Every structure is written in structure tokens, then in C-alpha cells.
Amino acid sequence: MKRIGVLTSGGDAPGMNAAVRAVVRKAIYHNIEVFGVYRGYAGLIEGDIKKLEIGSVGDIIHRGGTMLYSARCEEFKTREGQLKGIEQLNKHEIEALVVIGGDGSYQGAKKLTEHGFPCIGVPGTIDNDIPGTDFTIGFDTALNTVIDAIDKIRDTATSHERTYVIEVMGRHAGDIALWAGLAGGAETILIPEAKDDMKEVLARLKRGTERGKKHSIIIVAEGVGSGVEFGKKIEEETKFETRVSVLGHIQRGGSPTAFDRVLASRLGARAVELLIDGHGGRCVGIQQNILVDHDIIEALSQTHTIDKKMYNLSKELSI
Ligand code: ADP
């Protein structure tokens, strides 16, 4: 292995930079040249590819976003698009590619692997929804951003004795909502994996008021539905003064937490180790605090599931 490429793709996540840095430095340490592919698969098709040096990834470990930029690229979903990408990689004599991104990006890496071009997937997404890993890069940072918001909202909720609905990211996975709800002491957590009955939510709110609670915090993952609509319904049914906060893209930004930086460094380096050992078509992850790798095709055939025990605990603690 003489030359590898690295790209970031799909939704950006804090810690992607730390992963890029780890890939670049680990590779250079082992005398492998590294090329950065800019703007994900879009840049790959267009040949937006530049050599990265040790210094190219200096001063980025603490920055959110991605220095390689990210993009969504419909053309790459086609066979022609994928072959164009491989042509560019061959032109630069790049022998393998590290793809840092979410499940969509993994699909692209899987396709390249199926065409005979070795790729390693590194899980970079705030959603924590990639099979084969307990944590994805960016999840911890997003979670801490949400907690910070919940704590602040709680102050005003207490002062004004209001009910607050906080909509967080998570179209298909409720991890951010569940972890943030548990850590933020929310009364109700609504996740796509376990749609709660509205009646139960209302009953829970009323029970709380009856035992003297002055305010309530409800966390809704965006995949469940609109927080605004949900807030309206609650106010109509309970007559409690209700406010809604949609946290939106602030959840994607910010300086990565120490956890995400360490995770990104470990996973990025592991990806390079796999390539050095001659493995392609794998994805890396961490399970029970041990670095693991799986066949990328097999991993993608699995679905990420929510921790049911944790979900039940959140209900028990918010009676
Ligand atoms: P994420 O990686 O965060 O899940 P997306 O789902 O938007 O983000 O995927 C990022 C990019 O990966 C897409 O814009 C596309 O270029 C590529 N991609 C997604 N699905 C496929 C697929 N089935 N085949 C090939 N490439 C894909």
C-alpha cells in the first residue's frame, strides 16, 4: 500500500476532522501517501483530490465540521458515477479509500468495494445509527450540545412554570433523544423506534402536575413528527402553557468533545491499520470499548437498534 485517499461525506459531524487527522498521520507514519478527496463523492467524481501532508491536518483536532468539506451526490448512486470515481482514484494511483460518514456514505463505500476498489468505512454521524459500533463520531458532542440547551430551557421552564417541547435531530434513530432525555431528566422522550401513545403522554403530564410539578420537559426526535405540532396538541389537551424549541443545526456544530476526538483518532488510525494489513471492504467501530471491524456489506444488512433497557429506564425514572 503506497497511496490512500480519505473523504468525508453526508451530514457533517464534530470529530470528522480528528478522524481525517488520524488517517493522514497514521498513514504518513507508515510511509503511505495520503490524498484528500474534497466534497465527498461529488469531489471524487470531479477529481477534486489533493495530497495531504502532516501539516495539512494541523490545528484541526478541536474544530467541528470537516476540512475536506462534505456534499451529497445523487450521481454517485449510479454505476456510471461510481466508475467515474474509480477512474479518478486510478488516475491518482490511489489504491484504497477511507470513507468517513453515515449510512448513506457507507452505501457508497460498499458499492466501490463491490466494484473491486477497497474501502474502509469510519462511522461519522451525530445520529449514532450505524450498525457495528456502539458509538459514532459526533454523537457525544451533539448530545452535550442538546444537554446544554435542555439545562438552559429548564431554568426558564421552572421560572415560568411551563411545559417545554424540545425537538432534537434523529429521523430514524432516537439515540440523541433518548440519551439527552435521560441525561437531561426529561419527563417524556418520544423516539421513532417506540411511538408513544398521545394519551399516555398526556396522562404522564397530568400525573406530574397533580403531584405538584411546576414544569415539564418533553424531548421529541424529529422522526416522530413536528415538535411545533406536538406542542400545540399538548396545550389544547392540557391547557398547560407550552413552548416549543426546535434545536436544529446547532446540534451538528461545535468543537468535538474529548470523547469524540479520542474515538475519531482511534477509529481513523484503525482504518489505516486494516489497509496496511491488506483488508478492504470493512467498517470500523467500537463495541464494549474494544475496537472492532466488520464486513461493510454484512454491517449494512443489519439495522441499528435502540437500547430498550435504557428506554425503559428513562420511563421508570420519570414516573
Ligand atoms: P450520510 O452518509 O450522512 O448517511 P447521505 O445518506 O446523504 O448521508 O449519503 C451521502 C452520500 O453517499 C450520498 O449523497 C451519495 O453520494 C452516497 N450514497 C448514498 N446512498 C448510496 C447508494 N445506495 N449507493 C451509492 N452511493 C450512495
TrEMBL record:
Free-text activity regulation comment from the record: Allosterically activated by ADP and other diphosphonucleosides, and allosterically inhibited by phosphoenolpyruvate.
Gene3D superfamilies referenced in this protein's UniProt entry, alphabetically: 3.40.50.450, Phosphofructokinase domain
Record: residues binding substrate: 125-127, 162, 169-171, 222, 243, 249-252
Chain ranges of the Phosphofructokinase domain: 3-275
InterPro entries membership: ATP_PFK, ATP_PFK_prok-type, PFKA_ATP_prok, Phosphofructokinase_CS, Phosphofructokinase_dom, PKF_sf
Catalytic reaction annotation: beta-D-fructose 6-phosphate + ATP = beta-D-fructose 1,6-bisphosphate + ADP + H(+)
Binding site for ATP: 11, 72-73, 102-105
Protein's name in the database: ATP-dependent 6-phosphofructokinase
UniProt-listed Enzyme Commission number(s): 2.7.1.11
Organism, scientific name: Sutcliffiella rhizosphaerae
Pfam families: PFK
PROSITE patterns documented for this protein: PHOSPHOFRUCTOKINASE
Location relative to the cell: Cytoplasm
Active site: 127
Pathway the protein contributes to: Carbohydrate degradation; glycolysis; D-glyceraldehyde 3-phosphate and glycerone phosphate from D-glucose: step 3/4
Cofactor: Mg(2+)
Binding site for Mg(2+): 103
Family, similarity comment: Belongs to the phosphofructokinase type A (PFKA) family. ATP-dependent PFK group I subfamily. Prokaryotic clade 'B1' sub-subfamily.
Keywords attached to this entry: Allosteric enzyme, ATP-binding, Cytoplasm, Glycolysis, Kinase, Magnesium, Metal-binding, Nucleotide-binding, Transferase
Superkingdom of the organism of origin: Bacteria
Quaternary data: Homotetramer.
Top enzyme class: transferase
